[in-house]
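User:
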Amino acid sequence: MTTHPHDTGAAGSSTAASTAASAAVDESASIQPSLIDANLAATPGEYVGSWLRRVRSGDAGNLPVVAGLVLIVLIFESQNGNFLTAANFANLLQQMPYLVLFGMAEVFVLLLGEIDLSAGFNAACGASITLILNGQLHNWPWWASMLAGFAFCAVMGLIQGLLITRLAIPSFVVTLAGLLGLEGVLLVILNQFAGKQTGGTVAMNNHILFDIENGLVTPAAGWIITIALIVVFAVYILVRDSRRRRANLVTAPLGVQLAKIVGVAVVGVAVVVICNMNRGRTVPIRGVPTVVYLLLAIVVITTFVLTRTRFGRYVYAVGGNAEAARRAGIRVNRIRVACFTLTGLMAGVTGLFYASYTQSMSTAVDGGQLVLYAVAAAVIGGTSLFGGRGKMVHAVLGGLVIATITNGMGLLNIGAAGQYMITALVLLFAAGVDAVARRGRVAA
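Assistant: Predicted structure:
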């Protein structure tokens, strides 16, 4: 992890800063000429040819993780025929979200070439605060207790960001101290403020918070929501491309974009069809888990922040070349503090999802393991450890890989030791692919 000197004031103008951010994006594109060729392709065939050239040059994109995920699924299904059943598929959709959200939380700081090791215990503290305030001792409204938990986590991220930027302490050291300190805070919260009869565990007793991970939408509502989302996605893609063409900007061929829309539609319909199958033994259980749509909404919001706002452009600019961004007028330290704050906030959201999944929070939670899964999810999905490259969808893919491994090994009755070792091998493979791709881009 790298450290940077203090900011030297509001150097330059907002226009200069925006130019620097755009320049950083242009520079990144310039070292991937095959990507530019793909955007200039006139036909789907030319686009595919450009994509294949990019893969051969070492920039495989999401291909390795998608191929690996398919291989993992095929292996587990060959070993246990229950893996691809409707019941297990729904279970996987409910196991995945907190792993994905942890990875998304880390993406904000990984884009800067930094890390936050405290996210796991920060999330546990925020969730514990929410459950305690919403419990019988305090009886706060669910939304107020939820906001209090989020605020605690965001403030912890803010404090760590200020320590890193103002005192020039490496993020590894600051957040490692945060991990240890917040583990102690968690013990105090659950042992001193949750009531003497809890035994270090506080249960979730609010049905709204419970339904975050355990609720189901009705089969009819699932179809309505999914079809609406597919239509919105298709309109967005087509309108965006139409505007780009009118402005003489490069974009992928229409056939490629239509293929993307069809692909999204197929996945969405498949999820609804499978989840609407009856998977109950004594009573009918049908419907897509509510958490799927909540997770999708968070992915869209955070992706918008990183790709469609000035702040997002600044994050990529700082991660790509902090000194160039500083000279152009971007307040680098402000961006870094904001990213650590957002990581803290996302940790708070993740903690609530995790508590809803487990239906409680206790002193036995292993925040260290959770944060390692968070980094693994982001890196396995394709986010670079060196900063400047990554997307929220990478955390989705990486979290899905980890959840699939955990789920499949559970069906095969493989213990925790095997799960840890196989996840470690997948992480090493993903990091190796990232290192090879980075070396190829530098050599280009």
